[in-house]
Design a protein that fits this description.
mainly alpha, 0% strand
Length: 457
């Protein structure tokens, strides 16, 4: 496969492997949380409150790397194949640089972050160990997501799925060895992640260069890369700033939750992680749709783009509502996997009830946000993020100052934020302004295939 072509236009064939990949990754996170819980609810709660700090790298860098999917795919859809490889190269340089900077930040300020957030001395010692160990994770992860973007832009999502299976199996086996047998504690859980992500990186590099035969070049590379930097940054900065804003918001809110004690910290951590599979489904739809939306946007196939968007929204909200409801109904059994503390279980069940109210809206924001950015309407989601994500902070702070919010109150505020943003995102798509915002335009008419979108989802 040497030409810049899309493997399939079937949403099911693209999204199915992505879903299995996401499920595998979230399963690893849940297994890691289980290992942390074996070390104690306070350890699991501490790691959970520090997760927004880790998410700055773990979410922002992959989301920025998704820019490579959008830009390269639009160039392919517009048949501007000479700009595809330079887009891949710019994406790799940017993500690797971001990853290195973030790793240096974690290594240098691991102890200070927990102290600023208000962790006790004992919890902060655990947190500092965790953050410093995680610094080794991000450089291989940054390279991995850049190469995964190459595979995604070509529709090779089944290769990503196979790689994630290897990654997950290795991660869980090593975590069991390092924690249960060797007694490495927090460092053991992280070490398993570092080894497995490095292995996944090596597999992705081999798949791109040996499997797809994509060749990066040095001769004239600077000139070619400069030619695609502007569209990359136009979408990429907006792509990255929204999850960055969300993570910073969560860090601030976590500093408030920490004051509520270990029970609240543990309950919030377990309830949030229990929703992983629903988030995985929404992300899978968003990422699978992103590939087709970008190709079709480049080819100016607006009707196909619009139909695909609404199909993904319908499926995302339906699955989110059903899953959140089932999770609440069986909350006792779910939370018992992580803890036997009845206080933690009771509070966690209440949080899962609140989640039923906003999970469909979160699905809209995940799918709708990715879609708007993919088609080039990146500034609007950024503006919404600034207004809603940052605007809700003073509101929560004021309510907490005067009425002393419980953890349930914090989650109710999260629900309001998600619901408001979902309504705004749906309205924006309906305006149709995205049709004039693509970054690549075909030189001539492009004939679509006979079957443009099968009813497989």
């Amino acid at each position: 496969m040497t030409t810049h072509t899309l493997r399939t236009e079937s949403l099911f064939r693209l999204t199915g492997p992505v879903f299995l990949q996401q499920i595998t990754q979230w399963t690893v996170l849940l297994v890691d949380l289980w290992f942390f819980s074996r070390l104690g609810d306070s350890v699991a709660g501490t790691v959970g409150q520090l997760m927004p700090v880790v998410w700055i790298g773990a979410f922002v860098i992959p989301v920025f790397a998704g820019t490579g999917v959008s830009v390269a795919s639009q160039f392919m859809g517009a048949q501007q194949h000479h700009r595809v490889v330079p887009a891949y190269m710019v994406n790799l340089v940017c993500t690797a640089t971001m990853a290195a900077l973030f790793a240096a930040f974690l290594l240098g300020s691991g102890e200070g972050v927990g102290r600023w957030m208000g962790l006790s001395a004992a919890d902060n010692a655990v947190g500092a160990t965790y953050l410093r160990a995680m610094s080794a994770y991000f450089i291989p992860m940054g390279v991995l997501v850049a190469y995964n973007a190459v595979l995604s832009s070509r529709g090779m999502t089944h290769w990503l799925m196979y790689s994630s299976f290897v990654n997950a199996g290795l991660n869980m086996a090593l975590a069991a060895l390092f924690v249960l047998r060797l007694g490495w504690g927090v460092r053991g859980v992280v070490a398993a992640s570092v080894v497995s992500v490095t292995s996944a990186m090596a597999i992705a590099i081999w798949l791109v260069h040996a499997g797809l035969r994509v060749k990066f070049h040095l001769s004239g590379a600077w000139r070619d890369m400069l030619g695609v930097v502007r569209p990359m940054l136009r979408i990429g900065v907006s792509n990255a700033f929204e999850p960055f804003s969300y993570c910073v918001q969560q860090i601030v809110l976590s500093s408030m939750v920490i004051k509520l004690g270990d029970t609240a910290m543990a309950a919030g951590t377990y309830a949030a992680r229990a929703q992983s599979f629903q988030i995985a489904f929404s992300l899978s739809l968003a990422l699978g749709s992103q590939i087709l939306l970008a190709h079709w946007m480049g080819a100016r196939r607006f009707d196909d783009v619009d139909r695909l968007y609404w199909r993904a929204i319908r499926w995302g909200t339906a699955v989110a509502g059903i899953y959140a409801g089932a999770l609440w109904l069986f909350s006792g059994q779910v939370l018992a996997i992580f803890t036997r503390d009845e206080g933690v279980q009771h509070l966690g069940a209440t949080l899962l009830l609140v989640a039923v109210c906003y999970q469909p809206a979160r699905a809209v924001n995940i799918i709708g946000g990715f879609s708007l950015k993919t088609v080039g309407d990146a500034r609007f989601p950024l503006a919404v993020a600034i207004v809603c994500i940052w605007g809700i902070l003073p509101v929560i702070y004021a309510i907490d100052h005067f009425w002393h919010l419980t953890l349930v109150g914090f989650w109710a505020c999260f629900a309001a934020d998600e619901i408001i943003r979902a309504g705004i995102n749906l309205w924006r798509w309906r305006t149709g302004r995205w049709k004039s915002m693509g970054i690549a335009h075909p030189a001539g008419p492009i004939t679509p295939p006979a079957v443009v979108l099968t009813a497989d989802l």
